Amino acid sequence: MLDAVSAETLARIQFAFTVSFHIIFPAFSIGLASYLAVLNAQWLRTRDRTYLTLFDYWKKIFAVAFGMGVVSGIVMSYQFGTNWSVFSDRAGPVVGPLMAYEVLSAFFLEAGFLGIMLFGREKVGERLHMFATAMVAFGTLLSATWILSVNSWMQTPAGYSINDAGQFVPEDWWAIVFNPSFPYRLMHMVLAAYLTTAFVVAGAAGWQMLRGTATAATRKMFSMAMWMAVIVTPLQIYAGDLHGINTLEHQPAKVMAMEGHYDSHPDGAPLILFGIPNAEEKRIDHAVEIPKLSSLILKHDLNAPLDGLDTIPDDDEPPVGIVFWSFRVMVALGFAMLGMGLWSLWRRRKDTLFEGRWFHRAAVAMGPSGFVAVLAGWITTEVGRQPFTVYGLMRTSDSLSPVEAPAVATSLLVFIVVYFFVFGAGTVYLLRLMGKAPEDTGLDPTAEGPLRTAGITPAPQLHPDAIPGE
Amino acid sequence: MFDLPTIWAAIIAFAVLTYVILDGFDLGVGILFPFARTDRDRDIMMNSVAPVWDGNETWLVMGGGGLFAVFPMAYAVIMPALYMPIVLMLLALVFRGVAFEYRWRVVRWRGLWDWAFIGGSTVAAFCQGVALGALVQGIEVEGRAYAGGTWDWLTPFSLLTGAALVVGYALLGATWLVMKTETDLQGLMRRFAWPLAAGTLGLIGLVSLLTPFQDPVYFDRWFAFPAVLYSVGVPTLLLLDALVLFRGLRDGHDYTPFLASLGIFVVSFIGIGISFYPMMVPPALTIAEAAAPDSSLAFALVGTVILVPMILAYTAYAYWVFRGKVDPDAGYH
Fold first, then answer.
1. Long-range contacts of A280-289, Cβ-Cβ distance < 8 Å, separation of 24 or more
2. What is the ipTM of this complex?
């Protein structure tokens, strides 16, 4: 059976699998690190213990998610070499240094200050602890910046020449780092990470409110998350639109696949809402479409002509079906997030944000929506740039390592088993942590060890939520 | 001598060495995990490395990422050649990495994650040793790519270097715990350190004796003038380190056994450096041939010169914050 599947296909599945698992964790931890920094700053500013309770609560969840992100990320840094060594050799001179900068400026920063953020509040004092927390958040954003620069360069290469060995040689680092699609992709991903986190937080809060275990901290985090949904979702839709227009300029074939435009439309292209891509006949079956809307969105002109895949050589076409569907999943979730935000505004106005079972059920249902949207978005952009690894310059089929199919198949199988087991268990632990409502521990955050009953003043009087002797 | 590729080879070597000594002791703690007498001792062992382990492991990403950045051809040759041990090491690191958090989240399954920590640490250490041995043996290159088979790395020699690294990391772990713990656990680790030290030194000796048989050129590199001056220094320093280590253990010192064990690793690493130079991937690929274009090396060097000292400073600060004996009741879990 193995003979039927090439090493290339297996290596592509392996990369898709490991990178999809990996992106889930950063998508969550980028947003959560910023959230923790905000919570800690709010605690220091207001001395409202609700913020401290929330910080300690999400800190534990962050530690688990971050650990999973680190280990799945180490795998990624070696995947390029093990399975895509020809790509590594040729594109390494350009993308390698960017990744080295990611390690040097971001990974070390996160790892160096994580220990202090998690364990060090009593040891270093509130101010340095705040600094450490901010550095962890800054590190996650810096990491996103570098790796998205790498990915964007592979999508819209710039600032290079090619030497006799076929290697991409850096000529202008400014042009490489700030390649044409980078600012849009970075903005789109960072906002996506913030939305992912906001909806996870809202989902956990919704669950606790449905279960009747909600505390003051639950309501606080729900309110904060819903503000994020209100403010960030419209920004994200706008950023996505800009990113799409940028893609149309640099990778038109990808947009054709996203839109399902097999044919060119000289006087205004329709927006296909739904339909079944038919790769053999090169058309969309049962299409439900709105005339000229695609031209309006992409060109801001109802009658603007748009080329279709009929203008692209067959060898250079991305697989339409996957791109078409994943794009629609992402967009639909984006609008569902917008709806959730508007719903929350309405309820907030009526002062019923913390009531209403259907509203809270919707929050729970939307809990994982960010992850699904992030994955769908990445599938759109990564499958949409096929059949190239470096767009227009280096084909995926020319990027592969000289490894044998059985070796790739074996490692793929083991990756699948291990990842589902390890990260499945991790997900269970995360859900279990989020299932419990955040409660005030009654501890003095700056004292060494628990406060317990301080002198003659019983702790419960100081902190109404505290359990004596806890 | 001081061209960009050589400077970068030195930086990569520094990153790998830093990785080996830092993650070495925390992998070693994992290797020694099954020998703890009580659950509480296991908690203390894990807490002794919990605040620093992922900083330590970042040096591995630096080694891999750095190689990708500045020696892309070496990266492109080594990774497929060492496919199996590298993939196995990565999976092992997945298991041990998540165990740090998972074992605090469960009661019934705690034993499972303890074994994930033990197994993951041991397998990762073994695979790193195997990778080193396979590199010393030499990797077949044709054009710009690996030309050997899936199993070329598997030889008695690479298995020996794998075992040597497991024992060596266990020594680092034991002496780290001597430094970081008290009472019974410290006594136990002090007792373990003796045979582990003897085993480490014996295996280093054995590997050194067998190395010239992998490729006679190693013999020449060690005994040609003026390298021979350094070559004499390496075993001398190794013996001095061993002396400090054994005396520290005998006299009940807390810090010197760990520092002396680190010394053994540093000196051995210099020895490997003497064997390799000027090769990047033995037997045929030199540092200069494997290097990326100068524009890549220069760009990456600017950031490295600025950032690595900063990294070392805040890493040192993190170690300073968590200095001294582990408090058995601390931790945020």
1. A282/A309, A282/A310, A284/A260, A284/A324, A287/A260
2. 0.82
Chain B 135-164, CB below 8 Å of chain A: which residues? Answer: 144-147, 149-150
Domain enclosing residue B150, as ranges: 4-210+287-320
Q: Is residue B29 part of a domain?
A: yes
pLDDT at B271 over 60: yes
B249 part of a folded domain:
no
**B255-279: burial string, b at 16+ Cβ within 10 Å, e else:** ebbbebbbbbbebbebbbebbbeeb
The end-to-end CA distance of chain A, in Å, is: 60
Q: Count the Cβ atoms, other than its own, within 10 Å of residue B10.
A: 13
Q: Which residues are bridge partners to A162 per DSSP?
A: A168
Query: What is the rounded CA–CA span in Å between residue A424 and residue A426?
Result: 5
B283: preceding bond cis by omega (within 30 degrees): yes
A105 with B91: Cβ contact below 8 A: no
**Closest CB from B67, B90, B145 relative to A75:** B90
Number of domains in chain B: 1
- The HSE-up count of residue A172 (CA atoms within 13 Å, CB side) is 7
Q: Determine the Cα–Cα distance for residues A287 and A285; give it in Å rounded to an integer.
A: 5
For chain A, domain boundaries: 2-259+319-458, 265-306
Count Cα neighbours of A364 within 13 Å in the Cβ-side half-sphere.
15
Measure in Å the smallest separation between the Cα of A421 and chain B Cα atoms.
10
Q: What local confidence, expressed as pLDDT, does residue A116 receive?
A: 85
pLDDT digits (tens, 9 = 90+) for A158-192: 988 888 888 899 989 999 999 999 999 999 999 99
